[in-house]
Amino acid sequence: MPQVDELPIKTASFCSPRIDRRRALSLLAAGIAGGLSACSRPDEEIVPYVTMPDRLVPGEPMKFATTLALSGYGRGALVTSVDGRPIKIEGNPKHPASLGATDIFMEAAVLSLYDPDRSRAVLHEGSIAAAEAFRRALLEQNQLMKQRQGKGLRILTGKVTSPTLLRQIDDLFARFPEASWHAYDPIDGAGASAGTLFAYGRELDLVPHLERANIVVALDSDPIGHGPDQLRNARAFANGRKQPAGGFSRWYCVESAPTLTGAKADHRLALQPAIIEEVAIAIAGALGSRARAPAMPENVQRLVRQISSDLSSASGGSIVIAGRSLSAETHALVHWINARLKAPLDLIERIDRTPSGRQGRTLAELVRDLDDGQVDQLVILGVNPAYDAPADLDFARAARNAPFRLHMGCYADETAAISNWHLPQTHPLEAWSDLRSPDGTASLVQPLIRPLYHTRTDHELLALLADGIDASPRDLVRQTWQPNAGADFEGWWTRALHDGVISGSASPPVTPHEPKIPELPRAGAPPGFSLVLQPDPAVWDGSFANNAWLQECPRPLTKQVWGNALTINPRDAEPFGVSGGDVVSIRSEHGTVEAPVVIDPAAAAGVGSLTLGYGRTRAGAIGDGIGADANRLRAVKTPWLLAAASISKTARKQDPLTTQNIVRAADYVAELYPMRKLAEAARPVGSPDPENTSSLLPAAPPRSGDEYAWAMVIDTSLCIGCNACVVACQAENNVPVVGPEEVARGRDMHWLRVDVYDHGTAHSPALGFQPVPCMHCEHAPCEPVCPVAASVHDSEGLNAQVYNRCIGTRFCEANCPYKVRRFNFRGYADGQEYANLGLESYRAQKNPEVTVRARGVMEKCTYCVQRISGARRAAEREDRRIGTDEVRTACQSACPTNAIEFGDLNQSGSKVNRSRSDPRHYALLAHLDTRPRTTYLADVRNPSSRSDGDAE
Amino acid sequence: MTAVLEPDEAATAPWISAYRASDVEITQAVTTPLFRNPGKVWWLALLLSAPFMAWFVAALGWVFYRAIGVWGVNSTIVWGVAIADYVWWIGIGNAGTLISAMLLLTRQRWRASINRFAEAMTLFAVAIAGLMPIVHLGRPIYAYWLAPYPNTMSLWPQWRSALVWDFWAIISYLLFSLLFWYVSLIPDLATMRDRTKSRTGQLLYGAFALGWCGSVRQWRAMKILHTTMAALGVPLVCSVHSIVGLDFAASLMPGWQESIFPPYFVVGAMYSGFAMVVVLALAIRWGFDLQAIITREHLDVIARVLLMSSIVMGYSYASEWFMGWYGGARSDRSLVAFEFAGTYAPLFWALLGCNVVLPQALWFPRVRGSLVALFAISVAINVGMWLERILIVWNTLSHGYMPSLWRAFHFTIWDLAFVIAPLGFFAFLFLMFVRLISAVSMFDMRELAHREDMA
Asked: CB-CB: which of B160, B163, B401 is closest to A925?
């Protein structure tokens, strides 16, 4: 690392403009000394290889299992590491919360590791301080804590599922019994746990098994949308929709804001949350509850009748899932419905409890204690409440009542700014730890690389707090698991690390008593305009705000990048007098923010929706100062629904940045995104076999038996639009981020985009997703137009782009009917990077097997040719053909629903060959006779045969 | 400034509007302005063109330094102003060769007074046009890869690409224009050598005159060469524009993949080229007092050519729309609708107004006789033709097969630079030309005067 990167982030006093000679000399001496001491000796022993480890070959990638967290829950990952640098994350097939797939947050974690904005130094009151100074300060506080038995000590964490950390919290309480632990996650669905409290008298966690459900009813919930359990739910969705004959699931979605579940549902209705609660009451009523009569309009009643009859006819295989914006009473009612339906759903003990059963208190209680002056030491571990706590708590103000405020985090963020002390935290890819997935399965977190900076894990800080010692986090984790492992601990440990999952650690389901129906509040007057908040489908709660891949990842339903916007229905736009791109001022009881408007026919009338995660002020060079901070509107009681919100137009206009259009013109949709109802799924979709269409061009070269013919088939009925493939492709292929200014000019570089088609009506949109990589046409229009033969075809059917031959005429992209080529209009990875993306540390992430493209050349999807070539090397070493379906492209292996298949057309047993004979098979723009190798399976929906038009 | 050759509106001969035009008078009329102090107008014009020229050089430098991302091109509309400029400038370059070669072969003697500067116009315009495809490249330093030169990797250009054909078309057209212009310049260079009083001038003109002494043998050789080249030039001028048309037609995109493109581009080029000739002729006629040599009759003939071309252009547009509809492909029909009502519709209507509607005024002899009207119409045609070229690029690329990536071009200040600044560069070159070389072919004029019995 160059020294310049380690300068303090705040100007220290000695940097005053006047520097006299003495000062200059002393600074010079200090600089030289600092430079000499920068390369300190590592703390652990390093010996050059006397005997090389068995599997290590320099330059050959190795994979290690670890676990990555989203909102505290672990998802198993296999991390590819080249020469000690982690460069790519894939899912761990053995892990129940990943099932071999990834989501965008897992994929992007590897970029955050190398983020130059990560916190690197201990800060005291905002300036860099010596580690020793911190140690002394902590010792002082420790004396105080000991004297008062920890009274006045408050620990604030996120949702903790790590068994080791939970054990350490218990240990801390053994030492400081009067202390208090608060746990808080900005994405927590508080209503869900309060719902179990109402229904069962205690808080439980839910593990729905959608793979066993034929009828799924999502009530303002988004089970296949982004979240800790997305991968498992999405796989369940896909498995339920693969057999055309019988067993094809049907999904209903009643929601207040557009979600992925709504887009993929067979029936979708957008309603205000208050009416969705009535829907739950109506369903319960149809199943025999004696709750009060629901109040709702006629078209909703029709849908409810359909839902109820479907639910009861598929008893045992049907489930209702309630979402964040619904009240605890409705959640409890849904528990009753599910119990009545014998829904495939497990209830487990909460996994964020310490071994002694202690559970974190709430953030609201912490703020109350702070206001009462009861807090002396506030220790904040890895969370950022100064930014993401609801506005009515005013955490930043309350926190100042604690005299000693310690914040530990990967970034010196908004909370670091209000703390006396900030400690840099170790990135999960550098750390030892353990985590549990939503079903309770535990897995280990192992470091892929020695920490890049002098950082600590939360385990180390807790050990330091409790015992005043520097513990090794690896030992702490081993101590946790020693009792579970039996006699051969080392063998157990190696196996757990290797597999990336601790077998048999899932929480056993509990069987509580029959749920009670809670006292339901009366139906209120029809509500006015309300605002629903959602976690952002790219930057989540804002903790990923400084990740450039995620900022530039087009939001699945709006294609917006680099910011958020208020989504409203066209029918609401008129009364408020706003049109798309107008900046409006959104007011709730607690605050006001300004955001641009997106008009979306999929939004529910009378409900606006806004995502969290924006408006960061101290996220870093990438995430600062973009979007609107929805937390400024939130209330701690109803964090997801603001019933009394109002919007007013401002004079400003700011068109939300998007990367592409959502296609709504019916004739284009019918051609490019054909859709079938399940009953008609056997009717062929595609044009006649492209091989037989007459053409003046010579026929494609015959496929000889010993060559490979690579092809891809994408099943649009399974694609949920989650973008995992987009970010996976970016990570694998060194695809640059171009930044908001360049996106505004239409120059995003993604090799793979997800087109969105609306095959619904003007008032009830129904969206479908179509990932579009390069088609690798057999008659590729890009090839004959290139004057220098930079776009060429190889013997295996790949349409290859020779970067160092390309001179940048761009005729290939002009002539590409699919518009899948991307041009380096600037040196996006070559000297003209956006913001700090050109800094040295990011280079460590680059995949060494893929060229980093220079300015002025065209690039595009290669079918991950480096992976094909890797498989070829392996096959040739063993003197065999590349196996059927052996090569997996980055997009394919990321996909949670296995919608993408890749393989060899010359092997009859390959999955692509099977899919190509499916009646749903079709090629995009087949009439152009480009003979694409990437083809599609048409979307299939399974609407109820009893459905009448307007309920769809 | 008094004219050597007094213009005489009442003169009977159509192509020389003077009472008498002896050899000496013609020679003096053309050369005198060259040996005189250039005068305020010229200096003012130079002063006006200089900032544009500097702007052009700066814009070129900026594009090379910051990459073509400074323009409004994007992933969907990958081509922009540079391509439109290229087609437009090469169209401007069309008229010079057409006037010289075609009219020479068809013995249209009236070409005598305008062919020289029209050829110079061609040369400069083709030079600027040739610059554009290079500037437009992502990696312009490798532009030479289009040439089949021997290299260690045995890599050759990819001959199926229209851009390679284009490369040859531009190169051959540029070389041809230069040679053709130079051959017809030799007798006049000798005249200049003999008349200039400056030693440097004598040496330079003398060197380029290649020892011309006006012998019959020399005249004969020169005429044979010139006529032969003219015979070569006519197919060349058609091929270069056809190939420019093929740049678009040899593709798969709606609105480009049309067999009408090659002839349509040739006519379009002639159209804009003749309009530019009118603009320059009016300027030279006024600036050098050549009313006697460039007569109203000349302008009238060119105006008729413009009128005819505008009708052909209108027919081409209409046949494009008709075929778009008749072909029945949704992409084509949708594109035609987009042209009339889409993002760039105002520009499209402006182009129809400039290229098809406005020139219909030329049916009226009074309009053809009015220099102001003629000038205005010619400028409008040039604007209209530039709009046509940019819209060919923008419309098709903005409205392709995938509606998900329909986008608009974001016009930047550097796009504007490439629209305007080359004009200044062109003006600069032209001003230099009229000061150094006789802007009217003296020997052709003398010949014409003899034929018209005026000498």
From this structure: B401
